[in-house]
Amino acid sequence: MKIKSLTTYTVPPRWLFLRIETDDGVVGWGEPVLEGRAASVAAAVEELSDYLIGQDPTQIEDLWTVMYRSGFYRGGGIHMSALAGIDQALWDIKGKALGVPAYELLGGRVRDRIKVYSWIGGDRPADTAKAAREVVDRGFTAVKMNGTEELQYLDTWDKVDRCLANVAAVRDAVGPEIGIGVDFHGRVHKPMAKVLLRELEPFRLMFVEEPVLSEHVDGFVDVLRQSPIPIALGERLFSRWDFKSVLASGAVDIIQPDPSHCGGITEARKIAHMAEAYDVALALHCPLGPIALATCLQIDAGCYNATIQEQSLGIHYNTSNDLLDYLVDPSVFTYADGQVRIPTGPGLGIEVNEEYVIERAAEGHRWRNPVWRHSDGSFAEW
Ligand SMILES: [Mg+2]
After folding, report:
1. How far apart are CA 258 and CA 60, in angstroms?
2. Cα(173)–Cα(343) distance, rounded to whole angstroms?
3. Residue 28 · residue 34 · CB < 8 Å
4. Separation of CA 42 and ligand 1 centre (Å)
5. Gap between the Cα atoms of 6 and 49, Å rounded
6. Ligand 1 mean position to 48 CA, how many Å?
7. Residue 125 pLDDT more than 90?
8. Is residue 182 a contact partner of residue 200, using CB atoms and an 8 Å limit?
């Protein structure tokens, strides 16, 4: 079997799908995208195709190594997202060629379902509490919200109070049993992160995500280690080498690599196993589309430390299209009792509706995240 072609499709709401076809007709799908940089990742996939066309798609470890190491320059969001989507499609092809799910080729599964959480917003207490109640009524047992609006290095206590009011409203609405994750989204600088982590202690949170940007962890280790709230981060780290110092710091309790940004199944599993050696949990980042979620579930199936899975159904980004629109059989992601079953079909376990992908790619997208400003006119992290 040889790789014959690689085709990318830019599809709404903000995704990029990759179709790899082989000379014997087996087709694999991947989702190589960095949100807001879909065209750059598509170009990187196209460049990597020079080597890939004509290669045996089943030799994934060797292809991964060549794609990672052979360009001299390596790593970062664009390169590792391109590599990720290609790797996903290769696992899809190999599984389909052999008639087994990818996890079966990776040692089998340690679970047949995993807990999921739902996004509930976070900008206004009344809305956030209502959204939390609604998703809990639909069976979710965990939710995630944004903690704050934009925050200056030193900001005012009314913003801290609004964050606390927001989280309190959600806790009141859902009761003590529901997991609440609060995402600081890299918006918070060290001085305010210290304050917020302390003030949020009474709410018994599931975790705080990106309390500071990953690149500031080394200067914040003492606070993070001492926080009684579990600390999660990792969506902006792209490889084993990026995670190495974060894990060694002892500051992080849950890592959140994104298998569409960190080199696919091959690399995400290695990162997960590194984390297991530090007794750190895995909660794969996935605000993306159906191929990305299917990929995550193949990894969750085989990684003992996988704890909870993000998924994007109904997330605020999904306006023109949602998670299930591009699947032949959307029931593959049916959630029950706050969990989703690991798909057991061959490859990534889903069937992509190719006709609909082509139809929506004609519209495409140019999704960009908003640019925020502080009241003094300076840039604010979103
Ligand atoms: Mg996040």
Report:
1. 19
2. 32
3. no
4. 23
5. 7
6. 29
7. no
8. yes
Name the catalytic one among 185, 216, 365, 374.
185
| Listed residue (87, 48, 31) closest to 269, CA to CA | 87
Does residue 174 contact residue 133 with C-beta atoms inside 8 Å?
Answer: yes
> Can you tell me whether residue 216 is helix, strand or coil?
helix
Catalytic residue among 79, 273, 285, 374: 285
Residue located via tokens 């085989």: 302
The tens digit of pLDDT for each residue in 335-351 reads 899 999 999 999 999 99
| 79: annotated active-site residue | no
Which one-letter DSSP state was computed for residue 9? E
Catalytic annotation on 285?
Answer: yes
Rounded Cα gap, residues 370 and 382, in angstroms = 7
DSSP 8-state code for residue 247: H
Q: State the distance from the centre of ligand 1 to the C-alpha of 145, rounded, in angstroms.
A: 9
pLDDT at 380: 94
Q: How much distance in Å is there from the Cα of 379 to the middle of ligand 1?
A: 19
Domains and CATH numbers, the chain: 3-101 (3.30.390.10), 104-347 (3.20.20.120)
Instruction: Tell me, in angstroms, the distance from the centre of ligand 1 to residue 134's CA.
Output: 21
Running DSSP on this structure, what letter comes out for residue 109? Answer: -
pTM: 0.97
Report the C-alpha gap between 290 and 275 in whole angstroms.
25
Distance between Cα 183 and ligand 1 center (Å): 6
Encode pLDDT of 27-52 as tens digits: 999 999 999 999 999 999 999 999 99
Which amino acid, residue 194?
A: K
Beta carbons within 8 Å of 124's beta carbon, 6+ residues apart: 166
346 closest CA partner among 141, 63, 103: 103
CA 180 / ligand 1 centre spacing (Å) = 13
